[in-house]
What does this fold into?
Amino acid sequence: MLDAIKLRIQGQLGLRRLERHELQWLLLGLAMCVCVLLFWSLASEVAEGDTQAFDVTIVRAMRNPVNPSVPIGPQWLQYAMADITALGGPTVLGLMLAAVVGFLLLQTRYHTALFVVVTTSTGEILSYILKHTFNRARPTVIPHLRIMSPSFPSGHAMESAIVYLTLGAVLMRVADNHMTKLYLLGVAMLLTTMVGVSRVYLGVHYPTDVVAGWIVGLIWASICWLIAQHFETSTGLKAEKRKAQ
It folds into this structure.
């Protein structure tokens, strides 16, 4: 009798967990659909030139009106923004990924390391495809701009979103404390935001380039995370988490 009651309770708890899991998937899927629609709408506006006046106004507002080649604010802020923008560059992101993947390999978390590598490398390919599909010119209102790659979407904004959000998600899976998880998510979002803002401040991207980069980066990181969740058991990610504990 007691065994039957226990089995019934366990079944009810399992059903509730399944329902919560399906609800999470539904909400994430809905959020991703909204993000895709936002990107499509923004890309259409950019392609038609409807955002150009807004973009130019914001970029010019970030420059010294007497000397447009110099950003507004004190010199230390200019140096700080140059350092911050490097956090989204290929050199810093590459070194960071190499260090994290090396750590995961030493911890025998091979599938997690593979997940990080695949997510970031495919994100880099996606960034290249999108840039050359839209082929938007860089801001011309800033003198002596030497960057020749297309502007939309921002590669720094997109790749920093993919890398930092992916690494944040990996670390959140290891952490058990909810406050720690929120902290990791907050740091990942803060770094991504700072990199994007620095691109506009330095005059190398329009605001819509950065927003589009954030949206695509979030979509891609979410897609890879959902795939990893779906194949969690078969890829060994859950077992690796238990092993790390």
About this structure: The first helix runs from residue 2 to 47.
